[in-house]
Amino acid sequence: MTYPTAPWKLEGYAIQTLHLVDIKQAVPFVPSELEIVSFLPGKTLAGTYISSYEAGSLLEYNELIVVPAFVRYQGYIGAWISHIYVDNEDSVAGGREIWGLPKELAEFSGDNHGKVSVKQNQRELYQLSYKKDFLSLSTWWQQEFKGNAFGGLGSELLYFQNNFKSQISLLKANLEIPQHSPFASLSLGQPWLTLNLQKLELVAGVPKLLGNEVINLSYS
């Protein structure tokens, strides 16, 4: 299995959903060594990120990321990624070995009517329906922003920065997570904000080793 070294430069489009979830629902998805950050009393920020990286990318593939919480470790704050699915074997290998991300293979499908779904072994994990928000105005320029995240498989806790550049607009979205999905018990509910990221340019940075912790979770 061959994969590019970090950083990875990716181009395409994505949809980001943001949710406020009960911290008690997020706890089973987060290693005990990490402190869950509270955004409101008893609530943390969670989300999903579904993307398609196309021609011009270091690798071409589709991706679903599930973030159960924002966390803190020794002064570092970022998203903890509990589940991540792609449809490219090189992306699986690179994600696991470079960033310590629990990437798995899955099947992605979508239509021209604003619906995308992710399945694994014919079992549906995730379905998102979306349409333009009536009040949505897209930025005609590409806005720049950053997103920090943690990864950890085995005994290494890693931290890395993602640099984004994208046109941004709002969407109305309906998220369906079947009860048998591995992250159903997170109880994401409906997003309070859904962002449409077009003309996306992403650089997934080189990870930094923060420590040797036992990161060994089994999600139901």
Overview of the structural elements:
With 220 residues, this protein is mostly beta strands. The protein has a single domain, classed as Acetoacetate decarboxylase-like (Beta Barrel), CATH 2.40.400. Helix content is 6%, strand content 57%. Strands 1, 2, 3, 4, 5, 6, 7, 8, 9, 10, 11, 12, 13 and 14 form a 14-stranded mixed β-sheet that branches. Strand 10 (115-120) and strand 11 form a beta hairpin.
For the record, give the distance between the C-alpha atoms at the N and C termini, rounded to a whole number: 29 Å
SS-derived structural category: mainly beta
Strand residue content: over 45%
What is the H level of CATH, i.e. the homologous superfamily? Acetoacetate decarboxylase-like
Global outline: globular
> What portion of residues is helical?
under 10%
Q: If you compute it from the alpha carbons, what radius of gyration comes out, rounded to the nearest whole angstrom? A: 16 Å
Largest sheet: 14 strands, mixed
Number of strands: 14
In CATH terms, what is the architecture?
Answer: Beta Barrel
**CATH topology heading:** Acetoacetate decarboxylase-like
CATH class: Mainly Beta
Task: Tell me the number of structural domains.
Answer: 1
**pLDDT under 50 segments (min length 5)?**
none
Q: In sequence order, what are the helices and strands, one letter per element?
A: EHEEEEEEHEEEEEEE
Mean pLDDT: 93
Question: How many H/I helical runs?
Answer: 2
Keywords: Plasmid
GO molecular function: lyase activity
Protein name: Acetoacetate decarboxylase
InterPro entries: Acetoacetate_decarboxylase (IPR010451), ADC_dom_sf (IPR023375), NDX1-like (IPR039343)
